Amino acid sequence: MSKEKVFPIFAAAFAVIYVLAVQYNWALFTYHPKINEWEWLAQPAKSGPPMYWYGWLVTSVLGAGAVSLVSWPLTRRGPALLWLGWIVPIVIVVIFVYLFRGFFIR
Amino acid sequence: MVMYLVLLHGLLAVVLLGGITHQAMSVAWPSRNKSGIVRSFRAVNGSLYTNTNIVLYLATATLGGIIYPVYRVGVRTFLENARLMAATGSFELKEQFVAIGLGMLPLYWLLWNRPPAGSGNAARIAVTLILCAIVWYGFLVGHILANIRGLFGL
User: Is A39 helix (H, G, I), strand (E, B) or coil?
Assistant: First the structure.
């Protein structure tokens, strides 16, 4: 497996899956910090605020790993798509600023 | 204990900030001449910083993840009650930007240790600058939030 073909796809897939995980709450697990309890998948608040960030990260790592593996045979013959690995994250950063604009604009 | 972890998190972030800024300057605005402090700052061998920056990024993010529950339960509740929505939003963005940076680390490692031919240099400059911007943003937001009561007289 060629790292120069897989790593840009991993970076791009990670960013895309991460923004989807945040937007649609695809957390693989939930942490309830006040009662120190972990639960599978996204769960509602129990006592105090729930934390999904860890779950979003794991969802994104697993998802991006799977996308990289699946896409590897397709990209094997072409050139390395290095631009994917930085243009897509920049676009996702802009999308996050848009999604969180409510905190700054009232 | 959490206080020591916050301090360690901040200290690691300072070292990372220095390393990634040195590297970003050396690749985006290189200099062969070492006369003067600015040119010396830009004339470093950027590739030497890569592995250290990756370890520091992972260590700083991991420590941030360990102390994050304290922020979520105590500090964020305080910020929301004080109606400091911009401060809350700034931290929310930091959380997402740091995560995107984590996903870029394998590519960052590749571009500095085994740079591909062709568009490899442009990608290396872009990825390094993005990570540098994420680290600066995370550092400034973390620093301001850690001192927000003093800074805003709350």
Answer: strand
